[in-house]
Amino acid sequence: MILEMNNNSMAGFKSRLANDSGVTSPRSDMELMKEKFAKLLLGEDMSGGGKGVSSALALSNAITNLAASVFGEMKRLEPMPAERKAKWRKEIGWLLSITNHIVEFVPCKQISKAGTNMEIMVTKQRSDLQMNIPALRKLDTMLIDCLDDLYDQSEFSYASKDDESQEGKDSRKDDKWWIPTPKVSSNGLSDSMRKWLRFQKDSVNQVHKAAMAINAQVLSEMEIPESYIESLPKNGRASLGDSIYKSITDEYFDPDYFFTTMDMSSEHKILDLKDRIEASVVIWKRKMNAKDGKSSWGSSISFEKREMFEERAEVILLILKQQFPGIPQSTLDISKIQYNKDVGQAILESYSRIIESRAFTIISRIEDVLQADAMAQNPSNGEVQRPLSDKEAAGKLNSADNGASMTLLDFIGWTPDQEDNNTKKDLKEDPAYKDINVKIKCNPPNIVTNKRFSYLENLGMCRSPTARH
Predict the structure, then answer these.
(1) Are the C-beta atoms of residues 322 and 442 closer than 8 Å to each other?
(2) Helix/strand/coil for 314
(3) CB of 344 closer than 8 Å to CB of 199
(4) Is residue 233's pLDDT more than 50?
(5) At what angle do helices 267-288 and 242-249 cross, to 10 degrees?
(6) Residue 227, SS3 per DSSP
(7) Are 148 and 86 in contact (CB under 8 A)?
(8) What's the whole-number mean pLDDT along residues 422-426?
(9) What's the rounded Cα separation, in Å, for the pair 220 and 277?
(10) Is 317 helix (H, G, I), strand (E, B) or coil?
């Protein structure tokens, strides 16, 4: 009887799996799922030699590699092929299903048979997963739907590699020279198509901001690995350097003036500044929590001053995040992802990161079409109004006017206050920070970054097929 029930349950599961994926071979799907989960359980070491990575990192790698194999470079603004879309929905569903079994105990009232009230503990999905997984799946669906809406458009196209008539005319002159350039008619796009593309860009921009906020929140909650702490110097001055340390610890501190004194001419220098400041924040927090002055992390500076320095460094990191959303992952972020043991956080971080990356790429491809349209309307400025590179598109993410578009942050439940509370303390009482909210919202300079390397590449293990871009 039990065997018959198990066979019926398995048959029902296979049937549901076939219906959800839209394929006619449930047996092959079952075998594929078994293979994937066996690889995850072994930590990507199929030899069984015990040299695999942690389950959290294996899941993070699996989601990253799945996205790379399905979406790739996304060189054109076009709908996804049905096969790849079905593969993505099926396999990401398998990986996300793990979160249904990450639970926590919560109190619940129950009435006994005798009629008395008693409190018992029941399980429910962990609160961070219960809030963020449905939100991320909604954002994921919106990106796919945005591309699907292009299935019958005929107002722009892309030149093929064999089109000799386009040789030398539409080639890009930027760092993404291999991305094809869109072509529009001599009169440009129609008004309705132009307005629709702008609306889509605004909507995808909101998706990008929401995914980036969730990713930053998850990374902030991950524990700092001991290996990272051991690599740090014993004081903030050694981490920052004399000039940066003097600017942050000066009696009068102005974030705007601080950035005018920094060399922000390249992505490498911006990332180096972020690494130094993040390291100093960790050092100062440990010094503030040191049990006694004899500890190696003890400090001769007062607790109040140390706290003020840490607050100023947090403000600088917040402004960097606002102005340069495309800088690669910092050393601290890479270390957190590598040594993280929380499976739920690993899934949230990797899923939000790939949604953020896809949204960024779609915005860049929409900008390419809009620039081709602008060049068709005004050919005399053709040399200036070339298709935007990903670097140039990144600079427009924060400066776009999104007032008329629907805000997805309301749907997700994220507010600026929630994000700020997790990155810096209340600075209202300090007169040096009274205008900080205005300063943070100012438009970024022309220096922008976009090249997002996968942490797998930086770690030198289980390399992802494509870089984060």
Answers:
(1) no
(2) helix
(3) no
(4) yes
(5) 60
(6) helix
(7) no
(8) 40
(9) 15
(10) helix
Residue 456 near residue 332, CB atoms below 8 Å: no
Identify the DSSP state of 328.
P
* CA gyration radius, the chain: 25
* Rama region for 424: left / alpha / beta (φ>0; ψ in -120 to 50; rest): beta
Question: Tokens 């500044």 correspond to what residue?
Answer: 273
Contacts 24+ apart (CB under 8 A), 252-258: 252/432, 253/312, 253/432, 254/432, 255/312, 255/315, 255/316, 255/319, 255/436, 255/439, 256/439, 258/316
Q: With a cut of 90, say whether residue 57 has pLDDT above it.
A: yes
Query: In this structure, what are the phi and psi dihedrals at residue 216, rounded to the nearest 5 degrees?
Result: -65, -40
Q: Which among 20, 57, 18, 25 is positioned nearest to 39, based on CA atoms?
A: 57
Residue 341 DSSP SS3: coil
Answer for the pair 297, 306: CB distance below 8 angstroms, yes or no: no
Query: Three-state SS for 120?
Result: strand
Measured at the alpha carbon of residue 244, what is the angle toward residues 240 and 248, in degrees to the nearest 5? 105
In this predicted model, what pLDDT tens digit does every residue of 260-301 receive, in sequence order? 888 888 889 999 999 999 999 998 888 777 644 444 545 556
Q: Tell me the residue type at 214.
A: I
Biggest CA-to-CA distance, the chain: 87
Q: Which helix (H) or strand (E) holds 103?
A: strand 103-111
Three-class SS string for 10-46? HHHHHHHHHHHHCCCCHHHHHHHHHHHHHHHHCCCCC
Nearest to 421 by CA among 285, 220, 133: 220
